[in-house]
Structures are given as structure tokens and as C-alpha cells.
Amino acid sequence: MSGGGLLWGVVATILNLHIQSAIPFGYVLITAINFAFLARTKNFALARNIQIFVSILLPFLFQWMLGGLVASGATMLWSMLCLSAAQSFDERTHSLRWLIFFVLLTFVSLYFEFQIPPPIDLFENEALLKLPLYLFTMNFLAVSLAIFALISIFMQLRQRMEVELVQRNDELAQSQNALVQSEKMAAIGDLVAGVAHELNTPLGAIRASNDNLDRSISIILSGLPELNETANESELSGLADMLRGIAAVNVELTTREERSLRNSLASELQEHGFNDSQEKATQLVEIGVSALGTEHLPVLRSERWPVVFSQLRAFSSLNRNCQTIKTAAARSSKIVFALKKYAHPGNDGHVSSASVGESLDTVLMLYQNLIKRGVRIERSFDGNTTILADHDALNQVWTNLVHNALQAMDCNGVLKIKATSSSDELFVSIEDTGCGIPPNAVARIFEPFYTTKQIGEGTGLGLSISADIVQRHGGVIEVDSAPGRTVFTVRLPVDAASNLPKGTADG
């Protein structure tokens, strides 16, 4: 507009309109002073309002000094440049106010056109009769070209901002993935200590059982020759039957069951004339004999029963320790498999069809070290829990919710996990009997970095990341909390993969 002011000032001077030329030249001067004021004070708001005011008002003043709307060729069109540009940085309410100011000045111009005689009479000279047409053409073209240039600049800025927005979104997605991975690694870090402790129990059982096996084998190897040299056929038959009974024992008896079995065997032995029935019943229970047969009686009456009992006890110990090793190895394998499945689900972040129920069982297995302190698990999986989704990401959700529930209960209470399905949705609820979430915190628990835990216990990212993962799957996560009962409910579409970004679903 300052360029337009210089142009108009020169045109007015050429036409010997020296007084009128002061207005466009004055606009250039006021603009320069205003910019100097802005550079000195940094008061952008004041400088902006001054510039908009003079940019709208002075074209109208110049128009009035040239004789009105028609005589000046609608010089007021130059004010449109200011209105167009002001919308790019000013608030919309302010822009509307300046538009109203422009409309009022337009009506004032219309009033002057009919009520007040022009200060100069351009129609005295026949050569100047066509001047208004020239002026209007020049104003129309100049302002139109200027507006076109402004719009071009704005479009270039918009395109540049769109490119930057795409880059920022990519950076945000990468940062989000990094946060998810970081949170997952933090969760794995918490799990490792518990899993290591959980593995120590079966590994310790395996070591102890191995030592017992060594002792039992030594007893068997040293006692077999003596047993075979003098044993008669009836003793060997009874011994073989007892060994078969010992090998078939796979269930550990409780103290009450042992006492009941011992009393029952003692009564039977007493009926068969054994004076030491209680002692022999205790020995039979120890080696794993649960029922007394007639083939056992010769062995029990034999003078060499102490040697036979020593061998049977060694065989029984051998059997029990083998079962212990088998059970401990299976438990260790299950824990390691659960951890491996959690850390490396095998789909590398892509979608797959898998059971949410199995994923929940995996998470519960990993937290056995905390659960066995005093948590009772109530699980109910109704219907088909298999959905098409990014299960690597969903595992992070289940881990966060289960871990939060255990912490809220201080590992002492009831944890209820339910999964139900309909034709198009899967519902997963995780309920705990912990302290609950304060009412003023419920509305903020899904905000990043907001946490109700003590300093050092939480990052404030777990629930935020969980909510984002659920939303990306087209689902909803809700919370209902009161002291003694907190329920997180996750609703997921059966075909959750269709809501994921295309690059994810391609897997």
C-alpha cells in the first residue's frame, strides 16, 4: 500500500493536485513512522491497529479530496488490501470490526457524493472528462493484482505449512512409537525382577530334586544286590506290586489326607495281626502306598522289611523328585514362553488374528510374583475373544491395566478380568478392589504425564499410551472408580485392524 501511496502521490502532483497529493505521501510517511515506533517499542498490537486504521481511512480521505467516489475512480478500493491482509494475522472479531468501519466509510462516501460539492471540478476541462474512467481502471487493476499477489503468498505459505505439518506429524508418530516402546521396555524392566524371582522357585526345586536323586540312586544301587540274593518269590511279587503303586502316584496328599490314609491302613494292618500297625502304616504312606493288598502282607511280615522299606523309600523319592523336576521344568518353560511372547509377539507391530484371552493369560503369568502375594484372580472369558488387531500394541494396554490394578490393591485383593464378545465388538473389563481413583483425577488420568502415583512409581504415560492405542483401533476405554472398586472397560471392534493406519494394516 505504501507503493500505491507513492504512485498516487506522483499522479496527483502531475495533475497539479498538490494539496491532494499530501494524503498518499502522508500515508507513506505515517507508515514509516509507525514501523520505526514498532521497532523501538516492540508493541505490535498498537502498531498493528494504527496501521490498519490509517490504511482504511486515508484512501477514503484521498477519494473525498479528489471529488468523491466517481471522480476518484473509487480510490477506496485500496482499503480492501488492508482488510484482506488483516485476516491473516488478526482475530476474526477484530477483522469484523474493521470491516464494519470500512462499510461505514463507504456509506459516508455515498452521502458525500450526493450532498457535498466536490473540492475540485474535474469536468471543467474536457480533457479530464475521461479521467475518472482511467482512475477507476488503474485502481481496479492495481488492487486486483495486489490481492492476487497476497493470495498467492498465502497459498505458498499454506503449502509450506502443510509440508511442515506432514513432517511434524511424522516426527510426532515416531516420538509416539518411541514412547510406546520406552513404556514397554519400562514394563519389561519391572517384570524382569518378578520373573527372575518366579524362576528361582522351580530352579531351586530342580536343584534340590537332583541332589535327592543322587542320594536315592546311591541307596538303590547299594541295596539291590543284598535284596536280590535272599528274597523269595512272594517278597519279590509284593515288592514289584508296591513299586508299581509308587510309580502311579502323581498327586501330593494334604496333611489331613495323609492322616486319614494312615489311620485307615493302620486299621487294616491291625486286622491282619500286625502289632506295629501304626508304624508300618506311617511307612507305607511315606513311600506312597495308598491301598493294602494281600500280596503286600508277606513283604511286611518279612524279617528283612527294614531293607525292603529302605529300597522302597529310595524308589519313592526317585519318583517324587522326577515328578518335581517335570513340574518345575514345565512351570519355568511356561514363564519363559510368556515373557518371550510378550517381548516378541512375532508380528512386529503388524495386525494379526489372535485371542485377547490368551494375551490376558500371558500378562497374568508374567505378574505371578505379585499375584501370589495375596491376589485372587477371577477370570471369565465368554465367547470368541479372537480379533484382528495389532496385538503387540494391545498387550501394552493389558499390561498397563493389570499392573495398575495390582498396585492399587497393593497386591492384596480380588482382580476380576472379563472378556465378552458380540457379533461386532469385544468387551474387556479389568476390575480391582483397590483404593480407587480420586474423583478430581478421573477426568485427567488419560492425560500424558499425569499420574496419581508417588514420585518414582509412575511416568504418567501408561494410561495415555493405552488410550491412544485403543482409539487407533477404533475402540473406547472407560473408567468407573470408587473406593474398593475400580473398573477399566475396553471396547474394541472385532475388525479393529480396519481402523489402523494403512501402513500398519498391510502386515
From TrEMBL:
Catalytic activity, reaction form: ATP + protein L-histidine = ADP + protein N-phospho-L-histidine
Domain of life (superkingdom): Bacteria
Pfam families tied to this protein: HATPase_c (PF02518)
Annotated Histidine kinase domain residues: 194-496
Entry-linked Gene3D superfamilies: 1.10.287.130, Histidine kinase-like ATPase, C-terminal domain
Record keywords, A-Z: Kinase, Membrane, Phosphoprotein, Transferase, Transmembrane, Transmembrane helix
Keyword Glycoprotein: no
Gene Ontology MF terms in the entry: kinase activity
Transmembrane segments: 6-33, 98-114, 134-155
Entries under InterPro entries matching the protein: HATPase_C_sf (IPR036890), HATPase_dom (IPR003594), His_kinase_dom (IPR005467), HisK_dim/P_dom (IPR003661), HisK_dim/P_sf (IPR036097), Sig_transdc_His_kin-like_C (IPR004358)
Extent of the signal sequence: none
EC nos: 2.7.13.3
Protein's name in the database: histidine kinase
